[in-house]
Amino acid sequence: QVQLVESGGGLVQPGGSLRLSCAASRSIFNTHTIEWHRQAPGKEREYVAHITTGGDTNYADSVKDRFTISRDGAKNTVNLRMNSLKPEDTAVYLCKAVTWKTIYWGQGTQVTVSS
């Protein structure tokens, strides 16, 4: 049973944009904070951004002012719009659904920023 399904990864040029999506079940979407994390080769997994069920957002300093996280209630989906992409943004991006008692991870989608 796949709890979270990610899409939208791919190859983009530096300065380009990409939108990632994390589709969840309705019950998960309505009760969980959704986070994005990323893991680059040879590096530890790091937090990117999150959005609460109430729409409050937060971003890591490394992506603040470039990335935008949002919720689409009609599709039970959280989107991460990534602008002004840099090679340092290259990583596997994973979504995570969190409550105080449950955690679900997606499988991840590859984002590669390269000329």
Furnish the topology, listing elements before pairings.
Layout: E1 4-7, E2 10-12, E3 18-24, H1 26-31, E4 33-39, E5 46-51, E6 57-59, E7 67-72, E8 77-82, E9 91-98, E10 103-105, E11 109-113
Parallel strand pairs: 2-11
Antiparallel strand pairs: 1-3, 3-8, 4-5, 4-9, 5-6, 7-8, 9-10, 9-11
Quick synopsis:
5% of the residues lie in helices and 50% in strands.
Descriptive account of the structure:
This protein has one helix spanning 26-31; strands spanning 4-7, 10-12, 18-24, 33-39, 46-51, 57-59, 67-72, 77-82, 91-98, 103-105, 109-113. The protein is mainly beta and 115 residues long. The strands form two sheets. Strands 2, 4, 5, 6, 9, 10 and 11 form a seven-stranded mixed β-sheet that branches. A hairpin with a 4-residue loop joins strand 9 (91-98) and strand 10 (103-105). The radius of gyration is 13 Å and the shape is globular. The N and C termini lie far apart (37 Å). The relative contact order is 0.32. The mean pLDDT is 97.
State mean pLDDT (0 to 100 scale).
Answer: 97
Uncertain regions spanning at least 5 consecutive residues: none
Query: Can you summarize the main beta sheet?
Result: 7 strands, mixed
- The secondary-structure element order is EEEHEEEEEEEE
**Which class of secondary structure composition applies to the elements?**
mainly beta
Morphology call: globular
Beta-strand fraction estimate: over 45%
Q: Termini, distance in Å?
A: 37 Å
Q: Give the count of helical stretches.
A: 1
Q: Could you estimate the helical fraction of the residues in percent? A: under 10%
Total strands: 11
Rg value: 13 Å
